[in-house]
Amino acid sequence: MLFEVGSYLDAVTDAHENVGCIILYSNFLPCNEAYHCCISNIYNFLLKYPEITLCIYFSQLYHTQDTFCATTWNRKALQSFSSENPR
Fold this sequence. Notes:
single chain, two-stranded parallel ribbon, 3 helices, 37% helix, APOBEC4, C->U-editing enzyme APOBEC-4
């Protein structure tokens, strides 16, 4: 929700051009499951606003255990995202 095109963060960054850092606190690490695609949305947001530093603090991994059908997808998305040196 926060990182989709036309979302709250798009509105904030458009209204305040000098935003340099966004700090996000979350219970769960973002996933990349169908219909959510949070990691992809975050990545696209950072590509759109390269001057913004994003800090994400989370308390739990989300669906990375072997018991979930989306585990492989989430793990690969997280590995790909982290290999791009996110800001």
